[in-house]
Design a protein that fits this description.
alpha/beta, Purple Acid Phosphatase, chain A, domain 2, six-stranded mixed sheet, 21 strands, disordered N terminus, CapA family protein, Capsule_synth_CapA, CW_Biosynth-Accessory
Amino acid sequence: MLGRRQHMALAVTAVLAAAAACTNHARQDSGRGAPAGSAARGFTLVASGGVLPQTSVVDRAAYDAGESGYDFRPMLADVEPVVSRADLALCHMDTVYGTGGEHSGYPPFKSPPQIAQGLTATGYDGCSTASSHALDDGAAGIRRTLDAMDEAGLKHAGTARSAAEAHSVTIFAAGPARVAHLSYTLDAGANPLPAGEPWAVSLADEQRMISDARAARQAGADVVVVSVHWGTDWQDAPDEQQLALARRLTASSTAGRPDIDLILGSHAHVPQAYEKVNGTWVIYGMGEQIPGETYQRGARDPRGNESTLGRFTFLPPARPGDRWRVTKAEFIPEWFDPDAGRVVDLNRAIADGAELGAVRDRIRDVTLSRGAAKDGLVMGE
C-alpha cells in the first residue's frame, strides 16, 4: 500500500529543544518524500471521525471474519475509494485494544486489535489516540494499543509508552510535503493518569499545543495538523471552549507564518461545523465514523451514526518558508448503518437510489452552519 500511495512516515532525526516541550510521538521510517522535481505539486489530506466500536460492531466484525477473529475491512469498504486515493489519511482511534478475547463495547471500551489492520487496509496512515477513553485499561491498554498499531503499520499520536515517545513528533511524507500530526484531549475521562507516567496521554493546553506545533516546524514539518478531542456530547454547535481555543490556536504565528495549519475535532458523537478561523480551517467535530447503535440518556439518537470525512488539497507556497495553502476544502457525509454494520458514503448511496437524502441534508446543514460555504467549503464526491 505504501508503494501505491507513495508516502510513509519520515524518521525525525532532529532532537527537539527541551524548551519546546514537544509531547508527540516519533515514528521511524525509511521514506524520503517525493522525487526531485515534484515540489510544484501538492497533496490531499483526508480525515475522519472517531472509531468507537460498540459491542454490536465488535460482534459484526466477528461475523465478517467467519470462523475466527475479527475483520473490520468490510465495515469500511464503502469509504475505501475516498481514503485510499488521498496522499495522507488520518483517523481518530477513540478506544484502546483488549487482549485475546477480552473485548467490550462500554463500559469500558476494549476493542479488538484487528481494527488497526482494517484501518490500514482501508488506506489510513495514522490515527490520533488522545481521547477520554485512552485510559480505559490504564497504561497497559495504551501499550497494547500502540503495539498493535505499530504491527499493522498504522502510525499514531496522542498517547505514549515512554517519556521519549511522548517527547517526539510524528511526521508523514505526503507527496512532496512533510506533515506533522499532533493529538490532544481536553480530559482523559474518569481514569487517572498512570502513576509516574504523566506523559501517557497528551492533555490539551493552549501553550503546550503551540509550543509543540513550533517544535514540529523546527523538526522539518511543512504542514502542522492538530487533532483535538473536545466539545460537548450530543451538541451540534461547538461550545464556547472549542470556539475560544480554536481562535487562540489559529491566531498563533511565528515570523508571520501560522503555527498550525489545520485543526481536526472529535468527541461530541455528532457532526459539528467546519469553519475558517483566522485563515485556518477548523473542523469542530467529525462525528463517529464507527459507533454502533447510539443512545443519549437511554433513548436512541440516530445523529450518533452521522459523520463527515474532511478532505483538503494543499499546494506549496510560492516562496520557500511561506505557508502551504489549502486550495480546496471538502466534506463528504457518512452514515453508519447499525443493522448492516457498515460505514456508508452517503453521496454514493443516494446516487445508487438509497433513501438517505434527509440524513445527508442534515449533515450538510450542520457542517455549513457557521458560514463555511462562503470560504469555499463544498460537499465532495
